[in-house]
Design a protein that fits this description.
The chain has 249 residues and is of the alpha+beta class. It has helices spanning 28-32, 155-174, 179-194, 201-214; strands spanning 8-12, 16-22, 37-38, 44-45, 51-59, 69-75, 78-83, 86-91, 99-103, 113-121, 143-153, 225-233, 240-248. It is 22% helix and 35% strand. The relative contact order is 0.17.
Length: 249
Amino acid sequence: MIIVCRLYGDSHPLESLTSLLSRKRITFTEASKQNFAPYKVGDTFGPTWWTCWFKVTLKIPESWRGKEVHLLWECDGEAMVWRDGQPVQGLTKEGEKTSYILSTCLKDEEPHSVTLYVEMACNGLFGAGQGSMIAGPDPNRKFSVQRAELVVFNRAVRELLTDFELLIDIVKELGEGEQRGYQALFTVNEMVNLCDPSDNSSFSKTRSLARNFLSQRNGESQHIVHAMGHCHIDSGPFFLFVFSQITYS
């Protein structure tokens, strides 16, 4: 979908990006005291099972006041963002978590100059095999960071994409032969016709079509579904996987 290209708006380069490669796992305290060397996006490092620490120095433009600002980080390993000496969020391209929120609505009193550390494990989300999650690890595999920059995040686009994805999944699961599946397909088609990727004002109008569909009830006996988050903690890169646990009432 063309609208995916609108997920990120303006971008701004980092002030500096340096790295430290370690053969073994080291603590944040130990890593932060080491000497970091300049790193260029796209350069490879490794091999498998090593750990690469990055020191990220950034300055958010004053003109981004009032906007949602993210650090966009795309790499082929598992990563953890550290801020003020604390782990705050995992990043993984395979898990479609490639940005860290610096501010949901940038204000003057918020720090515009920030230093972060990113701890990256030299392995993928499902190990370090070649071409398959069940393949044996490749001990000589190399890794890299493909993107590292500041971006303005378009929350309205993310919410609209979520509505699209939800309705399309309903169509796939129920099929066009089911009345509810057909209604979902009809709604998606209307949304596509109404949405103009170049016009932000069309996003809320398009989402209203999804809200109308999703707000329809099938009688008082219809289930109320509650989503509860919990996590699975890997001992390797300390990466958090968040799933949905569904309960009915």
